[in-house]
Amino acid sequence: AQRVTQPEKLLSVFKGAPVELKCNYSYSGSPELFWYVQYSRQRLQLLLRHISRESIKGFTADLNKGETSFHLKKPFAQEEDSAMYYCALRGGGGNKLTFGTGTQLKVEL
Amino acid sequence: DAGVIQSPRHEVTEMGQEVTLRCKPISGHNSLFWYRQTMMRGLELLIYFNNNVPIDDSGMPEDRFSAKMPNASFSTLKIQPSEPRDSAVYFCASSGGSSNYGYTFGSGTRLTVV
Q: Which residues, at least 6 apart from B63, have a Cβ–Cβ distance to it below 8 Å?
């Protein structure tokens, strides 16, 4: 079975502060991990794929197989980062994504 | 490409009525997914199709829910009869199937059952 855990429902930070959104997963094989972002009342958009090892909008995420984590980080939060963030896992060679319950990021001035 | 298109954007219906949600995936994508989003439970996968064939419907809550994909460019999710606890945002997503791809989501249908 595959499971994604996002322990924080809400994370509040000040503008300019570092951000870390936590994601832990449970999967016996080699997973593919993703981060999706949903701005207020909009569709979910793909933010990052671990396979790409890219930085998008200043966000990065590193897959740590030892700790089974894929935390999302940004050194300096901006007001426009306020959104809902979902971590997702795909495994087993199938095409099904399992999502965490999401973390609402609120960046305050 | 206009992306994944869902209709209607909003639906308000009375308990007991039939509700049909529609989705047009991205042309060329061979996988289609229906998700339900609520505050309490986040995103739940209801059902997904590969090449128009239902692969996993274990997330469908009960017999009141049914989904079809008659061709590669159209899918429906039907609730009959609807209940207030079905109120949620229903998202459709499609994928090209490559392991490098995530999903492309539609804008969702916000369903309110009163």
A: none
